[in-house]
Each structure stands twice: as structure tokens, then as C-alpha cells.
Amino acid sequence: MELWGAVLRALLTGPGRRGGTLGRAFSSRRPRLPQAGRSAIELVSQWAAVFEKRGVPEPRESSEYIVAHVLGAKTFQSLRPALRSKPLTPWQLRCVQELSRRRLQRMPVQYILGEWDFHGLSLKMAPPVFIPRPETEELVEWVLEEEAQKPRAGGARGGPLILEVGCGSGAISLSLLSQLPQSRVLAVDKAGAAVSLALENAQRLQLQDRIRITALDVTLEGSWTHLLPWGPVDLLVSNPPYVFRQDMALLAPEICSYEDPAALDGGEKGMDIILHLLALAPRLLKDSGSLFLEVDPRHPELVGSWLRSRPGLALELAAVRRDCCGRPRFLHIRRSGPQGGCPVDAGPAPQPAGGPG
């Protein structure tokens, strides 16, 4: 499938480093082990050949990331030439062997390394929390562009109040916080593992004082009322589960065997969570507030039709943006008209990331 083939390639085309536990391959037939005295260049070639023979996607890139990681670098290309040709120690050889066995299990490189870069930030990665894809960086860029174009009323205090639904590792929220110094974020996810990881990433980046991360399932009836004390928000941002149910079985092993399926499965037409967000937006957005979504390329038409049939929501599809591959991937939906279901007064600033004080 074109979309998820591209996603799988994206899993292996960004810098990442540090972390990761060791594991054993599912297959009882172990690969031929490197002999002592092998250099980094030789190891990359050997393991790339093993990966290719076993059908592991992007075999050379996988091998380069693993060897570079063991040698303390983000990428193989960043290693000094002398280090590339220097024989590895027995301990380094064992590390490369064990991490490579994990790749033979089709574990994503991000989970093997335990860390990955997103929009200039180094984030901790751990299964089963959803791995942020490169195209989601384009969503962040669009939000930042729109914010930069907004006129600020005289005497206006502070930056935007942002709500992210389905925060995962915190990639979107923390990227926006890092680029919008006066912004505040409320980030929610129904998965406890995601909440914990996002909190850890916020602390690692020293952004925990401007973000509140909490467990919340927006699909539960009345769950949105838990957000009311924060007041109306300027921006609602989400990369929700949007894979069509019928396409879930087509996902690569790197995706379906390790990442949380609830972070991927969007229901029959991939719209289950999207529709909840569209219903949530009029209740929580300020007048002229914006909802930014990453979606399947089949969704802009579906979302536009759904909104036109419900004029009472006071939501309009303001713009659709294509991703780097030319597919309609991102939506900007703007709210207009009286705000309903949410207090008009501004809410309190987010408390430190761990929870309410």
C-alpha cells in the first residue's frame, strides 16, 4: 500500500540515538556472527547483507544506525573516518549483534535506539507509544506559520493556549512549546504509556512548566467537560488514529507488531476519532480558534462534506495542505460564531506536567 510503504520508509530516514534494550531474534536460525577485529565499515556491510537476506526493509540504513549508535554517534555519516575503519572491541561487537537481532525481529529502529529526532528535538521513544513520522513535522510547521501571521491585539497577554488530543510521545506539543515561548499546552492521551513518555520528554527538554499532560479518552461521553476548567483554547491540534479498518491488516510488521493499534485504527472509514474532535471543537475553541489535523488523503473530502451538512457547528474547512509527497494530508478547520458549552473566561495556566497541584 502506497501510504504505509512511505510511512515505513519514514521510520528509517531520520536521526536518532541512545537507549534501547537488547533482545533475541524470533528465528532459531541465527545469523553468522562477526569475527573479532571487524571495523565499523565491515560490520555495516555484513549486517546489511543479513538484513537484506531476511527481508528487513532499508537494510543498509538499519545497519548504519545500529553501528553508529554503538559507537556513540547519531548517524554513520557523522563518524570520523578513523573511527569507521577502527576495529570494534568485543563488547561493541556484542552490542551490535544484539541490537541487530532485535532488528531481525522487525522492531523499528526508533525503539531499538530508544531515541529519535523530531523537529529539532531529541525525544525518547519506547514501545508501544506511536512513533512520530516526518510528515507530522509538516503539520507543526503549518501551525507555526499560521501563528506567525496572526495579529496580536494591543495589550494581549501571552501566547496561544493549545490543546493536543492524542499526544503520544509529546512530539507535537513539545515542538510547539519550543518554538512559541509564551504558549501553554494541555496534552491528553488515553494511553497511560503515552502520558508517561510525554511527561518524561517534557522534563528532558525542560518544558514541563508550560505543559499539563493528563490521561483522557475523548470518545467517552462527557469527557470533554474535564477540559472546561482550562477555558477556551486558541488551537486544537491532533494527529489522530486515521487508518481505515480494512487497511490495518496491510501494515508492515514494524508497525502492527510494536506500535499501539489504538493509535492507528481510525475505524471503518478512519473517521472515528476525527468525528469526536469535530464535535469537541465548537465546545472548546475560542471564536476564530483553529483545529489542525493530520488525516488520510481520502479524508479532506469526507470531512468537508460532513461539515457542510452540519452548519450549526459553526466550523468551516479553511484550508487543506498537501504533504511532501503531494497528498492532501493536513486540515485547518476554523471556528466562527458564538462559543457554546465552554466558559468564556480564560482558564488557569497549565500546572507542571505531572498533574494538578
Determine the CATH superfamily of the largest domain: Vaccinia Virus protein VP39
CATH topology of the largest domain: Rossmann fold
The helix/strand class is alpha/beta
Any low-confidence stretches, pLDDT <50, length ≥5? 1-29, 341-352
Gyration radius, in Å: 22 Å
The helix content, as a percent range, equals: 25-40%
Number of H/I helices: 12
Return the domain count: 2
The largest beta-sheet arranges its strands as 5-4-3-6-7-9-8
CATH architect. name of the largest domain: 3-Layer(aba) Sandwich
Binned strand content:
15-25%
Listing every helix as H and every strand as E from the N terminus to the C terminus, the arrangement reads HHHHHHEEHEHEHEEHHEHEE
Largest sheet: 7 strands, mixed
Shape: elongated
CATH class descriptor of the largest domain: Alpha Beta
Mean pLDDT: 87
* Head-to-tail CA distance between termini: 47 Å
Oligomeric state, counting identical vs distinct chains: single chain
Number of β-strand runs: 9
Descriptive notes:
This protein has helices spanning 2-10, 40-53, 59-70, 81-85, 90-104, 109-113, 134-149, 171-179, 192-204, 253-256, 272-284, 299-308, and strands at 115-118, 121-124, 161-165, 184-189, 211-215, 233-238, 285-294, 315-322, 328-335. The chain is an alpha/beta fold and 357 residues long. The strands form two sheets. A seven-stranded mixed β-sheet has the order 5-4-3-6-7-9-8, with helices on both faces. Strands 1-2 form a two-stranded antiparallel sheet. The protein has two domains: 2-113, no CATH class; 118-335, Rossmann fold (3-Layer(aba) Sandwich), CATH 3.40.50. The chain is 35% helix and 16% strand. Residues 162-246 form the Methyltransferase small domain. It catalyses: L-glutaminyl-[peptide chain release factor] + S-adenosyl-L-methionine = N(5)-methyl-L-glutaminyl-[peptide chain release factor] + S-adenosyl-L-homocysteine + H(+). Residues 42-114 form the Release factor glutamine methyltransferase N-terminal domain. This is peptide chain release factor N(5)-glutamine methyltransferase.
